[in-house]
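Supplementary Methods. Inverse-folding protocol.

Structures were first reduced to a C-alpha cell string of length 247. This string, shown here, constituted the complete conditioning input.
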C-alpha cells in the first residue's frame, strides 16, 4: 500500500514536471482533449440537464411547505455550480475516461509496447501520461461550465413548464444570489478532479500485470479509486472554501 502511494506520487510529480521541459507532445494533447472533452460532451449535457430538473422538482415541493418556491432558482444554481456540477461531471468523465486510460495503457503494458518505447529512448510518462493529464484538466474545466449552464436550464424547464413558476423570477434569483466565492469554488474543483482522473487512470494502466485479466482489474480499480478520491477531495476543498469565504 505504501509502495503504491509512493509510485503514484512519483508518477504524478513526473507528469507535472514534464510540463516545464523543452518538448511537449502537442498533437497527443490535442488528440486526448478531443477524445476526453468532445467525446464526453453528450453524457455531460444529459447528466447536467436531468440533475437540474430533478433538483428543481424535489426542492420546489419542499420549499412549497414554507411558501418559498420563489427561491427555487437560487437553490438550483447554488447546488449545480458549487457542488453537483463539478462532482457529477467528474464522476461521469471518470467512468468514461479513467477506465479508458487504464485499459489502453494496460494493454500497451502487457504487450510490452511501453518497454519498447523505453528501449527507443522515449519517456513513456512524457509521451503517454502528461498529455492525458493536461487534456483532462483543461477539458474538465469547460465541461463543468457546460454542465452548470445546462443544469440551471434544466431546472428552469421543470420550474416553468411543470411547476408553473415565473421564468424571469427563476433566472433573476439564480443569477443575483451568486457571488465570486461560489463561482470560484465551482471552478477550482474540476482542476483537482481532472488531475485525479488522469493520474489514477494512467497509474493503474502503467502498473498492469497479468495479461488480459490484469487489464480488466486495472480498469475497475481506476474507476473505483478515482471516484472515491473525487468525493474525498471535494469534501476537503468545500471545507477549505467555506473556511476562507464563509459560504
Amino acid at each position: 500500500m505504501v509502495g503504491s502511494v509512493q509510485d503514484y506520487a512519483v508518477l504524478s510529480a513526473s507528469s507535472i514536471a514534464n510540463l516545464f521541459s523543452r518538448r511537449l507532445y502537442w498533437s497527443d494533447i490535442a488528440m486526448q482533449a478531443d477524445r476526453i472533452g468532445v467525446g464526453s460532451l453528450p453524457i455531460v449535457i444529459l447528466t447536467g440537464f436531468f440533475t437540474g430538473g430533478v433538483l428543481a422538482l424535489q426542492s420546489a415541493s419542499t420549499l412549497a411547505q414554507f411558501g418559498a418556491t420563489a427561491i427555487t432558482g437560487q437553490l438550483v444554481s447554488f447546488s449545480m455550480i458549487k457542488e453537483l456540477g463539478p462532482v457529477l461531471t467528474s464522476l461521469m468523465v471518470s467512468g468514461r475516461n479513467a477506465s479508458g486510460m487504464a485499459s489502453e495503457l494496460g494493454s500497451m503494458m502487457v504487450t510490452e509496447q511501453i518497454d519498447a518505447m523505453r528501449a527507443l529512448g522515449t519517456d513513456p510518462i512524457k509521451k503517454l501520461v502528461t498529455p492525458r493529464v493536461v487534456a483532462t484538466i483543461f477539458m474538465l474545466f469547460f465541461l463543468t461550465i457546460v454542465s452548470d449552464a445546462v443544469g440551471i436550464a434544466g431546472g428552469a424547464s421543470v420550474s416553468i413548464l411543470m411547476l408553473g413558476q415565473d421564468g424571469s423570477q427563476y433566472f433573476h434569483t439564480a443569477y443575483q444570489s451568486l457571488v465570486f466565492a461560489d463561482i470560484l469554488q465551482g471552478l477550482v474543483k474540476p482542476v483537482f478532479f481532472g488531475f485525479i482522473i488522469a493520474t489514477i487512470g494512467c497509474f493503474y494502466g502503467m502498473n498492469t500485470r497479468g495479461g488480459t485479466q490484469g487489464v480488466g482489474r486495472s480498469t475497475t480499480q481506476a474507476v473505483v479509486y478515482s471516484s472515491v478520491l473525487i468525493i474525498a477531495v471535494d469534501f476537503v476543498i468545500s471545507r477549505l472554501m467555506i473556511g476562507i469565504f464563509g459560504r
